[in-house]
Design goal:
This protein is of the alpha/beta class and about 200 residues long. The chain has helices spanning about 5-10, 20-40, 55-60, 75-85, 95-100, 115-125, 130-135, 150-165, 165-185, 190-200; strands spanning about 15, 45-50, 70-75, 90, 105-110, 145.
Length: about 200
């Protein structure tokens, strides 16, 4: 488990801006805001961006003027090595956030449906969280700012907490590990999660 000194000494952060171009375009302004805060907070911060090969040129273009060191990789071995140096993560979806949770990295999730999709979802979908662990517990274990709640003010507040509140980060990791231990079975974790979600919906 990651202790307080790890969070204090390791300033590297992972940015996961999505696996689809539409996600990247929609949410990248928040990653830009995060970068601008980190630039003022600690100029030695390294930003690691794992991505897919087809999105790499777009991300390189979007970050070309950033003054912090940025590592962009689509190589699985490189990705694992760089994750081990990250003490925090900003994640753009609930699916990717499970991978971050399993690596014991505290995170903030941001996610945004388009306006009309959100209206439909509110009427037909009972699940109110993006992250599967939050869905399973029916409470906010991993911080999320989603849909109409996601704006510059709410984002900056949530991101500053991720960067500065090490006690909250420790609590997040402890709760995540408790949940992961509960759902460990001989079945694959995604199967267990799917069965629990179906039970919750019924």
């Amino acid at each position: 488990n990651r202790n307080k000194n790890y969070f204090l000494n390791n300033k590297n952060i992972a940015f996961l801006p999505g696996s689809r171009l539409s996600e990247l375009n929609k949410l990248f302004p928040f990653f830009q805001n995060a970068y601008e805060y980190l630039l003022k907070f600690n100029s030695e911060t390294v930003i690691f961006i794992p991505t897919l090969e087809h999105l790499k040129p777009k991300i390189v273009e979007l970050t070309k003027n950033w003054k912090l060191k940025v590592i962009i990789s689509s190589n699985s071995l490189d990705i694992e090595k760089n994750y081990s140096n990250c003490s925090k993560a900003l994640v753009c979806s609930g699916t990717a956030s499970l991978e971050i949770a399993k690596r014991n990295i505290p995170q903030l999730i941001i996610y945004k449906l388009n306006f009309f999709t959100e209206l439909i979802a509110k009427n037909f979908i009972k699940v109110k969280y993006a992250n599967i662990l939050n869905i399973l517990e029916n409470k906010l274990i991993i911080p999320e700012i989603t849909n109409s709640n996601l704006n510059k003010i709410t984002f900056e507040k949530g991101f500053k907490k991720l960067i500065n509140d090490n006690k909250s980060n420790e609590e997040q990791i402890n709760k995540i590990n408790m949940i992961l231990n509960k759902i460990e079975t001989k079945n694959p974790p995604f199967y267990v999660a799917a069965m629990r979600i179906l039970a919750y919906l019924n």
